[in-house]
C-alpha cells in the first residue's frame, strides 16, 4: 500500500513538473510572439528601422534575430534596387524626351513648308520614341534580372551609322556646339554589342562631353581600329580630371567638386558613367580615360568586332 501511494505521488510530481515546464514555455512563447508583433508593428510604421539591427534585439531569440536580420538585408536590397530604378529612368529618359521636343519645335517652325524637314523630323521622333520604349523595357528587365544583360549577349550592331545617328541628335539639341567626327575605318564595322545599349553608352559620353566643355564648345568623336576591337573616342576641352578622380568616375553617384559647382551639372545625380560601366561590363567593352592639358579629356570605348 505504501509503495502504491509513493508511486502515485511520484507520478503526480512528474505531471506537475511537466505542466510547470509547459506553462513556462507557453509564457516564453507568448512573450516572443508579443516581441515579434511589436517589432513588426514598428517596422510597418517605420520601414527605415530595417537598417537598425538594435530593433531586433527585442525579440530575445538568436534564431529569430538571425532570420529577421536576413530579411532586413533582402528588404534593404529591394529598396536600393527601387531607388536605383527611379534614378536611372529619370536620368536616361531626359535625352530622348529632349530630342523629341527639339524635333517637334523644328516641325512647328519649318515642317509645314519643307517636306524634307517634315520627313526627317518624323523619322527621328519615331526612332527616339522606339528607343525610349526599349530603354524603359530594358531598365525594367535590368531590375528584374539584377543588372544582367543575358538576353542580348550575342547581339551586334553597325557602329558608324549608330554614331552618326546619335551625333545628329546632339547637333540638333546643342546647335551652339561644334561636333566633329573622324574615322580611319574604311568599311562598315559590326560591333558585338546590342544597338540600344551602344546608343545609350554614346549618349552618356556625348552628354558628359557637352556638360563639361569649356567656352570652345567643341566635341570630337573618332572611330578607329585597334587590333580586333573598334575604338570610339569622345574628347572635349574643359576641366581636367586628376588620377584620383578618374579612379572613382564610374562609381554610382560619384560627383567631382567641379560638377557640384558647375551650373550645367548641378542637377545631375552622378549615375551616367556608372550605367556606362554596367554596359561595358555586360559586353566586355574596354573603357579608358585620359585627361591632359594638351589634348583635353578623352573617353575611349573599345568594342569587340564581329566578323560573322
TrEMBL record:
A molecular-function term among this protein's GO annotations: phosphorelay sensor kinase activity
PROSITE patterns, per database record: HIS_KIN (PS50109)
CDD domains assigned: HATPase (cd00075), HisKA (cd00082)
InterPro entries: HATPase_C_sf (IPR036890), HATPase_dom (IPR003594), His_kinase_dom (IPR005467), HisK_dim/P_dom (IPR003661), HisK_dim/P_sf (IPR036097), Sig_transdc_His_kin-like_C (IPR004358)
Keyword Transport: no
Keyword set, alphabetical order: Kinase, Phosphoprotein, Transferase, Two-component regulatory system
Catalytic activity: ATP + protein L-histidine = ADP + protein N-phospho-L-histidine
EC number: 2.7.13.3
Domain Histidine kinase: 88-307
Record's keyword annotation contains Phosphoprotein: yes
SMART domains found in the cross-reference section: HATPase_c, HisKA
Protein name: histidine kinase
Amino acid at each position: 500500500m505504501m509503495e502504491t501511494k509513493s508511486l502515485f505521488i511520484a507520478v503526480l510530481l512528474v505531471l506537475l513538473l511537466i505542466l510547470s515546464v509547459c506553462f513556462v514555455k507557453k509564457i516564453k512563447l507568448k512573450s516572443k510572439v508579443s516581441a515579434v508583433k511589436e517589432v513588426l508593428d514598428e517596422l510597418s510604421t517605420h520601414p527605415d528601422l530595417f537598417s537598425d539591427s538594435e530593433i531586433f534585439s527585442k525579440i530575445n531569440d538568436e534564431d529569430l534575430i538571425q532570420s529577421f536580420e536576413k530579411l532586413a538585408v533582402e528588404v534593404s536590397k529591394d529598396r536600393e534596387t527601387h531607388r536605383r530604378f527611379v534614378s536611372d529612368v529619370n536620368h536616361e529618359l531626359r535625352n530622348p524626351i529632349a530630342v523629341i521636343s527639339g524635333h517637334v519645335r523644328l516641325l512647328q517652325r519649318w515642317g509645314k513648308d519643307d517636306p524634307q524637314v517634315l520627313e526627317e523630323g518624323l523619322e527621328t521622333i519615331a526612332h527616339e520614341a522606339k528607343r525610349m520604349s526599349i530603354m524603359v523595357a530594358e531598365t525594367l528587365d535590368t531590375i528584374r534580372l539584377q543588372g544582367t544583360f543575358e538576353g542580348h549577349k550575342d547581339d551586334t550592331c553597325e557602329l558608324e551609322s549608330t554614331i552618326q545617328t546619335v551625333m545628329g541628335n546632339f547637333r540638333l539639341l546643342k546647335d551652339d556646339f561644334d561636333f566633329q567626327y573622324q574615322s580611319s575605318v574604311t568599311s562598315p564595322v559590326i560591333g558585338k554589342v546590342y544597338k540600344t545599349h551602344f546608343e545609350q553608352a554614346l549618349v552618356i559620353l556625348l552628354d558628359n562631353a557637352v556638360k563639361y566643355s569649356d567656352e570652345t564648345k567643341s566635341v570630337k568623336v573618332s572611330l578607329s581600329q585597334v587590333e580586333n576591337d573598334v575604338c570610339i573616342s569622345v574628347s572635349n576641352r574643359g576641366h581636367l580630371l586628376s588620377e584620383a578622380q578618374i579612379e572613382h568616375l564610374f562609381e554610382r553617384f560619384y560627383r567631382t567638386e567641379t560638377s557640384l559647382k558647375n551650373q550645367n551639372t548641378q542637377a545631375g545625380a552622378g549615375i551616367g558613367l556608372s550605367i556606362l560601366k554596367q554596359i561595358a561590363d555586360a559586353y566586355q567593352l574596354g573603357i579608358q580615360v585620359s585627361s591632359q592639358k594638351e589634348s583635353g579629356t578623352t573617353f575611349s570605348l573599345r568594342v569587340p568586332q564581329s566578323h560573322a
